[in-house]
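Weekly puzzle thread! Below is a chain. First person to post its structure in token form gets bragging rights.
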Amino acid sequence: MKVIRKFKEFAWERPVGLDLDTFQEKQLDQEEDVEYCRGFYMLHNNVMIGIVATDEGPAFFSNGKVYLLKEKGFRFVLKSSGDSNNFTFMWEGQVEFHVNYLRSWIQGGGKQASESSVDFYSWLCEAAAMKRFYSFYTVKNVKARELFATLMTHPPAHTKVV
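Winning reply:
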């Protein structure tokens, strides 16, 4: 089974992953034959959001849709204001996903952690801005067309491949 990890899973939680064959979250057992793939996901307000590396580059999924990210045509925007953040995913000039949420404030050892170390949206914006984002999220072992075919035959709540 090919899975991606849940973003910022805590050590005391039972390990879970997103099965890329079914796009269902599953608890993972140590005895299970699991192939961890490059990517992360999270559940936010009952919406599955994530990114996975494929042979055609990074694929972002949210609101039951999958977007194969190219160097142009998409944008992640994160705006901070006081105690809240606004995250927006734009696809071909249109807002496809938007969420307003409380900022993460983690302090340890007298230092505040970087927001991207505890906040999926912040991490995603930073990662996508890096030069090696596309090469890092391009791998041979996850075929984009097979992944998209799975989503079209086993859609988790109204999946649409864009």
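Puzzle host: Confirmed. Bonus trivia for everyone else. Residues 33 and 83 are 42 Å apart (CA to CA).
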